[in-house]
Sequence to fold (1289 residues):
Amino acid sequence: MRHYLTIFLVCVLQMALCSCDMDEAEYIVPIDLSTLTFELHSVKMGIYPDESVMTDPNNMFVEDPIFIALGDDPGFRWRSLIYADDNGLEEPQAHILAFYCWATVLVKEKTGEAQFYAATRLKAIYENELVDEATLPTVKQMALNGFYAVLEHFPDSVTYDETGTTAFKLSEWAKHHIEQLGGNPDLF
Amino acid sequence: MDPATGVIMPRFLRPFIAVLLICPAVSLADAQNNPQQPAEQPAEKTAEQPPDAAGDTEAAEPTAEEAQEQAPPPPPGSAKTVAVVHDQSGYKLQVNGRDFIVKGMNWGYVPIGENYRYDLWSKPDAFIAEVLGRDMTMLKEMGVNAIRVEVGIPAKWITFIYQNWGIFTSVNHLAGRYGFLVNGSTRFQVDYSDPATREAIKADVIAMVEKYKNTPGLLFWLLGNENNYHLLPPNVSKGPQDEATRAAAVHLYTMYNEIIGEIKKRDTNHPAVIANGDLLYIDLIKKHCPNLEILGTNTYRGVSFGDLWLRAQKKLGLPVLLTEFGADAFHAQDKKEDHLSQANYLRWQWADVLEQTHGKGNHGIALGGFVFEWSDGWWKYRQILNLDKHDPAASWAAAGYQFDWKDGTNNMNEEWMGICAKGPSDEQGKYELYPRTAYYVLQEAFALDPYAEGVDVTAIRQHFAKLDPKEKGIKYEAAMANVGVNRLSQMFGVGAQMKFEMIYADGDRSMGEDTPEPPKFDHMESFFLDFEVNPSPQLEGRVSLNVLGNVPTNKIDKLFYESRGTPIEIEDADGNPVMLTDNERIKVYQSELSWDNDYFKLDGYYRTGHYHWGAEGDFFGLYREAFYGENIDIYNASAPFGMVLDAKKALKGLKVAFGPQLYWSANPMVLAKYHRQFGPFSFALMHQEDLTKQEASATARIIPEPKTRKTTLFLGYRKGALGLSLGGIFAGSDKLGEKFVAVRDAKGTGYMGTDYAFLTDEIYLLDTLGAKARLTLDVGPIHWYVQGAYQGLVADGGPDNAAAMVPWTLKADGRGNQFNALTGLRYQLNKFFIAPNVLFQRPLEGALPTDERLRGRLYNGVYYPGIKPRNILDDPFAVLGNRETYGFELVLMYDPTPKTWFWDWDNDEKEDAPFAAALDFVYKIQPTQRDATTAISAEYYIFAFDGAPPAKNEWDGRAKLFFNPAWNLHIVSDLYVGQIQGYRPESRLLTRYGAEARLMWDKLQLHAFVKFNDFGPYDYHRDFDLTFPMQVMGDLSYGMSLPKLFIPYTRLGARYQMRWLDQHSERYPHCIDTIPQCTVAQGEDRLGNEYEFVMYMNVSF
Fold:
């Protein structure tokens, strides 16, 4: 009996010791976006079907329920948030924030619209040189791959104008951006 | 003899009549005309009889003392004197001066599907007379002259049996064998040393004597039934010879002695006999029960009674009456009926008895006996389960029955002890009897009068040597073949049900823009067919199929089992609409199988219920009870579905359950449990391993949870009045590292202008651990428990299945993320009891508040992350049933007939008290809200609400009432009132109330309800806060039999249902332009309605 009791107590102690290695919980606080930068976590992030953006520590939207804040249509919600006049974002940070927004929506919703806008934001990051010089080619290729993904996986997707009534076929616009980036619009 | 395993197995049924057939030479007319001097004299006394033996044939003259207290002479036609006569040739019983060998039968009447609660004597006189007419005639023809029956038989029926068939009755008072009411409280384990208990039992026996003593046809007073085998609880007694158990036996026999003394003061015409378990404690009987005149014993020793006679004569010196003896008719090794062996054992047992009667030169102490038993008891093995199954399980072992005994296994099959096999009952409760070979063998055996001239041991042996069971067996086998009953049968259909409905429905309502208006008139046909396979007694299976005819689309309750066949519109590859009309036309409704062999018992189930393992060490409720009633049909669920393997022999104690959905919403899993009992201690180790995640769900109340694994440990201790249970759980390790948001109070400095601060944290090892403890105490009329638990954030268990004498509503929620404490007690006072109960429960991490300010926003270049309400779909845990609660409950109950326990699952049908009632009031203080609940959308996808309703207190009061003004008039009613919230964030705090009643009068049944301001009948009504200002229903039906509540039966009926609609109701016709019934100006004050009228016919066989 004593032998078994000893084993039991040792196990309890071991479990307790393991549990001592607990990180402190972190308070949720507002995030200053004025210094937001684009970090290359993965060369496939923001490109369907990759989901690595969800493990990117720089992506503040991984756990964020922001998509429930502004209505049912995720695309509308994101646009309202990102393009709002009073959000105080400077253009470089707006591009980066918008990329993380659309890349997160792409993982959660898997829509052509999200892929298209994630790719346009990568293109904007490239064109505005928001990363270091060595990383620019990579970001350019990521943008191209994002537009190719629209053609391959979402060939029939559309987006709507401000009124929400006029639809535009995203594949045509994707081809346009592919051409601008020097890619092959007829690849798919 | 009850089994050593301690399973409650009364050897004779309650109520129970033992028939004692007087000697065939005495006709009934003779007994009536000349009770003192029968027409034919008994066998002449032989020369061996001493001269004073003649005097013993007359009743002994009472002493002066006895004469003063002598009872008045019995009425004519009765047994004036039943006396024991003793000389140097042994003992004899004499009735009215004539030698009388007891050729008795333990008699009872319990139809298949019923159990010890069945009361023949509550039925109409005509029914009882018919039953007795058939059975007593058969017994008389068999040669039986006495029956053994429990006290409860009305005296008039004792006389009826005696006057019509000449069969005597021995009335048996159980003397606390199965519990006794003492000072207003029921003691299930009787303590014979307790003065109050002894006085209570004694008083009850005296009342019995006063009631029956002058009854024509009375033979003996019988006391107890193997009370010496159950003196102490099995986990307390170390064996029959340990000091404490022998001490308890002394109290039993001293009590018997006192009782017999009291009997003798009141009645000297009928001896008192105790029904002892074999000869156990014969030395104590000798010492402490000097008033005893006849030792009765229930003895199962095999083909003979061995040294019973020698030991009884040597140690006690009294005559012996076998109050039970016999053999079962099932071969435990070959797993098949063996009526020939049964007959053979009874043949030689009776031969042994006769050889030990007076004047045979042996011990001369046998007075005869009561065969156990008249017909098979289909309820014996599990008492309350499988009552319509002739269970072949053997529950105890007796090595004397060599024909099917094997070392290490049981061979006594309790449900097969009948001299007669039993057929199914008709709608009135009458059944056929099929006399086995033993009937015919005993008929010839009883024909030999041991007291007749020339009947010595040689004559006895010659008589029995000629009795060949094989010859007699032909009659039984022919009878069984004629009725088509074959124990090795192939597949055969066993039942069918046909449902026909004509439905008219309409109303002032709106079906919605996309839903077409249903037809006003529609109809439904639904057929169920049951098949049973029974290739051997070890293996049986059943499947029930449902076949749909037309599926109506106009019912106002849209979800029902047959609605799975509702036509649905889909699109083909070209996008054209296609109507599917043949979906799920034929479906397996239920299925089950059972395989019982020497190494394990395997039970498989599909949509049939199963019990939990709470009494077997499953302290945290991992294996949940799965009885869902009609909900499983309404939501067309495929649960429960799985198998349970219960190991035997070396692995006894191991149980493994596995399957796609062991209980509703369970993930496909394997559950293994090992449980052992060591004296007062018990131990169980249990592990659950989910194999994958369940995808489907039909109702938001049953949402599958993520794949997980759980391990629990249980330690229990029970001794006397005290019970202690301890347990630990390790669960949710698959969630280690998962992130969650926690909330803290931050008055004035909170996040985004609220009073809260929020943190992100993750699941650690300690969050997967939990512990629980429970203490119970039973002292006299009080049963008290206290319980507490600490469960880590993800240490989720299941529902609390602790056995409770009161089914309180307030129970611990089994989820993790809480600590709780509960206590309650039940106090019984006669037929009343009062049971308060309190609950304290608090989550370790509280619910996240629902607040508009907590939605994420982007402002001035600063991002404010939003706080999403938790739910079980997206988060490692959620505060739901484990929300902060301070609960108070009070139950009051009045039940004058405790044999039908008020809260039995079928008590709505079985309660037999003229009036019984229970009140249950619950009040819950809930100062904080819960997390978001899940729901199922109209498109059948599961989602979580974006918040929870504000915290409110809830309360509920319910009354349940039973009335039985006549044997065929039964009324059940339920009344309720309370305040309750829905689940979506905008839910109101509703005050609702209503009443429901069923009246069953002979074959007529009326069922009705009325509800005010209450949710609709489905889960989604509460999910989406959908209520109706008023709902009414009335259903009147006439059946071919007495109404049944839990199984289908043939009946014709009509039902009317109506509900009024307001702006909180689904299908409310909101005032919009397309609804011509109202105008916008009328606003939302008007009420809509919907109603249906149904004519239906159910045919069931």
In short: The two ends of chain A are 73 Å apart (CA to CA). Helices of chain A lie at 2-20, 74-82, 91-109, 112-127, 136-153, 170-181.
